[in-house]
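Hey Z.,

So I finally got round to the 1-O-phosphono-alpha-D-glucopyranose thing we talked about over coffee. Here's the setup:
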Amino acid sequence: MTWLDSIQMVSANEIAVITKAVIPVAGLGTRFMPVTRSVPKALLPVLNIPLIQYAVDDAVEAGITDIAIVEDTKSVGSYFHSMPDLEERFRQGGRDELADQMVEISSKARITSIKQLEPLGLGHAILLAKNFIADEPFVVILPDEILWGDHSSTAQILDVRDRYGGNVIAVTETSWDDVHTKGIVAGPSVEPNVIAIEEMVEKPKRQDAPSNLAIIGRYALEPSVFDFLSQQRRGAGGEIQLTDAIIECMDDLPTHAVTVDAARYDAGVPEGMFGASLHQAAKDPIMRQMIVDFAAQL
Ligand code: G1P
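And the result:
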């Protein structure tokens, strides 16, 4: 009998609170060459805020206090270091607001850097955080996926986890032309915007995809996922895939997908970053007018 045969809502007090997150950021950033020759993709900005800060904010809003950034030789974690000299300089120049912003950035959460020096895939990046996680449930956030809503997308999946336990993943409907670039899930609906996952596959061919519901970079996971990641089996693209480890856990754990309520931008590609920049710019009256004037000229 699998868990699906005996679905039960789990009472909230049986579920351990999640306080740790893993944010993997290693990778060549090929689609952002040449800037990514020296600047890590996670430090590319939407206007003046880098992707990594949006990911950390998504986590912190969901109650996360400890974050491991898994990075390659380019340092992303140092973005969150305290910079007392800079702060002092801003204060002396009467720029207290900017100085306060510097302090706020370095006190968001406890940030740990973990090095991933071999490009063996997302599953491998998460495996490297095993000691940091130390047998607790945790969240994974992929900063390439910008999700902006009234509530953090991580908080939205944790809310569903409070009710069902097990592993919970954020998804969205994607174009059928894109299913071969994503993890895809399918299963019966258990409440509005929540499905119990029965099928899950990493980067399927269009004709093999069980749906067009794509995984979009927010995961709440039980530590048993490490049992499977430790086997380091290669999946799609010859990489160690997080999706495959979650599939392996499905016999023993409830596994749900949540269609999160958020505007989504794929910051893995320049046009997604451009869309995200427009989204933010439109909130500022001056930049909004610039967009309107420019569109009129076009
Ligand atoms: C990863 C995951 C995939 C997910 C995607 C979201 O793929 O493996 O399941 O849909 O992130 O962006 P990647 O884009 O790293 O190849």
